[in-house]
Amino acid sequence: MTLDDRIREALAPLRGDPERDAARVLAAIRNLPAPHAAPPPVRTRWWPVLVAAAAGLLAGWLLHRPEPAPPAPGPEEGPRLLACTGPIEAFSAARKGGDTLLPGAGFRIGDTVFAQERAQGELELGQGRLLRLDSASEVTTAPEAIEFVRGRAIALASAVPLRVRTGGVEATVLRGAAAFTRAGEATRVLVLRGQLRLRGADGRELELDEHQGIEVTAGAFDRPYTQALPEMSVAWQAELLAVAGREKELAVLLERLYLAALLPPVDGKALHALRQLGSGAMPRLAALLRTMHKNPLDPQRVAIAGVIADHCDLRALDALFALLPDPSPKVRLLVYRALVRLTGDDGGIEERDVETMDEERLRKVAAAWAESVR
Asked: What whole-number distance in Å separates Cα of residue 131 and Cα of residue 82?
């Protein structure tokens, strides 16, 4: 009988007779084999085991440790000046005087921000919202809205709407961009792209789509109108776009205004918009004139060349030298006069010869003239 059989026999259920059951269990237990003798103790060196265990625990922790939690996001940075073409000031009633802001400098919510004469600025308001100010323009910031006080401004919003209060109404740029022009109590609002919602003092609401404009005053507004080329109203921002490095937006603005000025007949409004671009945009405008629609008989090209000649500065020298051999004699003459004004030199040729000189010779003259002033 095996050991297992003997154990089962010893522990079998009782059969009802106390004496026989007790004798059976005792006999089974006495007949179990003696246990094996315990082996002699072995002296174990524990420090290698402990070191190995610690190394295993360390390796397991390194391989399976949880990723550290990302730091909790801090509060969003406050408003700041992104770019400017001249002095921009921020001041409030709480402190004496104002602070002249440098690009990257922040200002407080509640401050009034003012662009001095011949200065423009681009403000970052957080959450993808921007505000561009023309010279002599003023706004007051607040947590819930911007108070547009005077001048010209462009409000831009992407993910989060931007609210602007002016003329007693609230204009919310839902997405895109809108231009604001305020003179006295009246404000002209024009949607450049996207959508805008107006709310009057009486609670009346109106939504405007891109290219729609409206005039508001004393908390009320009339019927909207449509402006075919809204860029004409915001040509003033060109130099600010250049300083801020917004090349794509600047290129679109210039090209649209240039093409509008090419439409016959010569459009005084389009030329006025080109003058509003500022001297910083003249090199790009000259490049457009040189590369697009080179019909020498177009009076519109001559008119555009006149704008460039009147408003360019030294930054336009390279563009003017490239434009000097133009197919149009009248354009050549205007460019030549601008070069004489800027360089104080005549390039070795007389004005009366500019209109009749062939293009190849003018190209050589322009190259030598450019080399002499470098």
From this structure: 10
User: Domain spans of the chain?
Assistant: 80-227, 232-372
Q: What does the alpha-carbon distance between residue 37 and residue 5 come to, in Å, rounded to a whole number?
A: 23
Quote the pTM value. Answer: 0.76
Q: Are 185 and 201 in contact (CB under 8 A)?
A: no
Crossing angle of the two packed helices 359-372 and 329-343, in degrees rounded to 10: 10
The CATH number given to 80-227 is: 2.60.120.1440
Q: What does the alpha-carbon distance between residue 87 and residue 85 come to, in Å, rounded to a whole number?
A: 7
What is the pLDDT, as a whole number, of residue 243? 94
CA distance to 90, 93, 113, 288, per residue, from 109 (Å) = 10, 12, 10, 42
Q: Which amino acid is present at 334?
A: L
Please answer whether residues 228 and 213 qualify as being in contact, where contact means their C-beta atoms are separated by less than 8 angstroms: no
Burial class (CB in 10 A: 0-12, 13-18, 19+), 4: exposed
For tokens 């009034």, name the residue.
112
pLDDT, tens digit (0-9, with 9 covering 90-100), for 258-282: 999 998 888 899 999 999 999 999 9
Q: How far is C-alpha 156 from the geometric centre of its chain's CA atoms? A: 10
Strands 146-157 and 162-166: parallel
